[in-house]
Amino acid sequence: MASAGEFGCIDAVCRDLLYRPELVKLGAGDDGAVYVSPPGTDQVISTDTMVEGLHFTAETMAPADVGWKLCTANFSDMAAMGAEPAQLVVSAALPETLPLAWLTACYDGLRAACRRYRVNLLGGDMTGSKQGVVLTAAVVGFVPAGQAVPRSGAAEGDLLVLTGTVGDSAAGLEAIFRGRAGDFPALAERHRRPVPHVEAGRVLREAGFRALDDITDGLASEANEVARASRRDLLIDAARIPLSDETRRAGEAFGIDPLRWALTGGEDYALLAAGPAEAVRRAAERIPLTVIGRAGGPGGRVWLRRDGETRLLPRIGYDHFRKTP
Amino acid sequence: MASAGEFGCIDAVCRDLLYRPELVKLGAGDDGAVYVSPPGTDQVISTDTMVEGLHFTAETMAPADVGWKLCTANFSDMAAMGAEPAQLVVSAALPETLPLAWLTACYDGLRAACRRYRVNLLGGDMTGSKQGVVLTAAVVGFVPAGQAVPRSGAAEGDLLVLTGTVGDSAAGLEAIFRGRAGDFPALAERHRRPVPHVEAGRVLREAGFRALDDITDGLASEANEVARASRRDLLIDAARIPLSDETRRAGEAFGIDPLRWALTGGEDYALLAAGPAEAVRRAAERIPLTVIGRAGGPGGRVWLRRDGETRLLPRIGYDHFRKTP
Question: What is the pTM of this model?
């Protein structure tokens, strides 16, 4: 990095940036980029950071994976509002000793995700770091006016659904740590190249779901977010939580209850949604969905039924879940 | 930070976030915040990062200054497009050992700037850091459709103007390093609490300026950006570059040519603009302006006239400027 300098680094990554050019009036390279909002839409904004040594290491992820996953984390926040990501800016704090090839590979991953989800890279900031890489992206998306889906809309009797399996990313990380990534390639891939459920978010919004969240911090944490925001108790049936066969096999191989990965692992980016049975029926015609429980009366807590017992599931997750008082 | 936890930290700063509430449909706290764009506008986006140990230290800036300046850096990018900042997200990577009081004070500075410039704090991300604080903000602003002012519009014969003095921030930093901040309080303030020229940016746009940039990296660097983007040679008269009396006095006290601070110091956030004489006349009725030079024929380089000599002024600044070939 030191030899290339700031401008050299910027030049190295500034190409092939626009994947939804019809919304852009002025791309990266000026003080700000200029874009347009599609008529009849509300705008949605979010930001996510990845820190070397906390979110990734050279052992767990290649640089292109880091770029891809930074996008997934941000795009998933849009999906979790029923919105489409459209514009992205990326700020990189980089140690002087970082090889320029790391940065260009990271941007290859960013570009691959932006191309796949039609998001424009509208520039960013590049600066030094005292220790390790710190990458922050901010994303702007859009949703038909008045139709963003918050976490807070779950109503009594709503069904709770997931748009994919959970626990795979945490199981994959465990396999990587144990040097067993080769035995569980799909799980390692789920950790390194998770996908945001953008299309599913749109389908759920159109089908009439009224609460939506993405699985960033594990099902336990996210279910509690929905319960608290909606002021409803939620009841989840452990037996219905969708686990992949490979995650089950990894659980057996490592002697770990795979449900723990699902509840507390996170970074799966499946969507958790609540809606009436009619919405579930409509959405299930278009995307795979698993019903895992339902919303109950006023409250704000999450209950997990497993093996005939129902226990409180706290936000901090399965490991700490305590008996019904 | 460690004892408060992520949720405790978020709770500590999540209050008084909306200063332009008429544009917000859903504030911070969900996966994304939802806002509206004023009708008839284009959207402008930018991001800026501040790294402890590079952009600030405990010696040079109080935590509230850091929050304020992060906003200024971002809002100034909007001003430099002729746009108004409206929405902000902030990502903070924080060491475990950081006192929670540092964070709340930093957010007090953020809030003060957001209140002053009517910008909504629409949430963000909070995570750990391996060393030092890394703060990134992304800002979205708006400008009447089709009227954003890029760097690239300077035309032959345009006058070059500055909307304020330059060099004060660098002179202030020098005073702080020398333990002389008390002798040069206005300069230290210009380093710690610089202001973005948002109103001036609007006036320049309305007056018909066609190239606009903010002084982030020093006048030499920014003038070269305008020259290169506009493919014009620029000629600057050193004697007309506006220096404050206090910066001149600091130069004398420290034995440093104050023009060096102006050309290579940066972080002044004054605006550099190019426009026809008629635009200068119109704008000068509303805001203070100093004409420092003019745009010449095709090219892309900057020339500095000083004491009867005209020399090339490279992007890297005054210290390295070489004799006319």
Answer: 0.94
